[in-house]
Design a protein that fits this description.
Blueprint lengths: L1 E3 H10 L12 H17 L7 E9 L2 E2 L15 E7 L4 E8 L6 E10 L2 E10 L8 H8 L15 H14 L14 E4 L2 E3 L13 E2 L2
Parallel strand pairs: 1-8, 2-7
Antiparallel strand pairs: 2-3, 4-5, 5-6, 6-7, 8-9, 9-10
Helix pairs in contact: 1-4
């Protein structure tokens, strides 16, 4: 499985909060919240979201005006994938918009309480950002296998969080030991490591766009 920067960002975001936030937190309720978010983005209508009276909104991890933000744009979402954290009652969705007029790759974190969304935080990337290529991102991301692992192959939540933190630390310190899988492929923007062979690695120097 690939190491997705967006997926690890979602783990990082989810462990920031220690109190469950959705009153009835189930995969169904989280899926419903994501569906409402995707529909709102497709319509460019943030008012269609079930927002709490004091819901907060951020873009690029900075407070922003929801009525002037990315959710007011009508975007055709060509690819999306969501991580649902039932324990923390939060979600993270990565999506790609490949419209050549203005492509995007967006990662959005939702949290809520009592069937309303209390916070939205979107990380928005486009042509001016590092390694950006929405088409390549979608091409590679859509190949991922997100089927549920057999129990004997699963890692604990603590191990996953430690791996995520090591991965993020690796960007500023290449001496950090990251528990790369074997083989391993890693998608960053529109570039990917690996060539589909058993020797594939996630080390930065192996990036390729082919």
């Amino acid at each position: 499985r690939r190491l997705s920067q967006a997926a690890f960002a979602s783990i990082l975001l989810s462990v920031t909060y220690t109190t469950p936030v959705w009153a009835a937190c189930t995969r169904a309720s989280l899926t419903s919240a994501v569906d409402r978010y995707l529909a709102a983005q497709g319509m460019g209508d943030p008012a269609s979201l079930p927002l709490a009276a004091k819901a907060t909104y951020a873009e690029q991890f900075e407070p922003a005006d929801l009525q002037k933000g990315i959710l007011t744009q009508v975007l055709k979402v060509d690819y999306h994938h969501s991580l649902l954290d039932v324990k923390q009652c939060e979600t993270f969705t990565e999506l790609a918009v490949t419209n050549p007029a203005h492509p995007y790759v967006i990662g959005t974190h939702l949290k809520g309480d009592d069937d309303v969304i209390t916070a939205i935080n979107s990380l928005i990337t486009d042509a001016d950002d590092w390694l950006f290529h929405a088409g390549n991102f979608m091409k590679y991301a859509i190949q991922d296998d997100w089927n549920v692992l057999e129990r004997e192959h699963r890692r604990s939540r603590e191990e996953l969080v430690a791996a995520a933190n090591a991965y993020l630390d690796y960007f500023s310190d290449k001496t950090v030991k990251v528990p790369w899988g074997k083989p391993c492929r890693r998608l960053e923007g529109g570039l990917i490591t690996g060539k589909g062979v058993p020797e594939d690695t996630c080390r930065s120097e192996e990036h390729t766009s082919e």
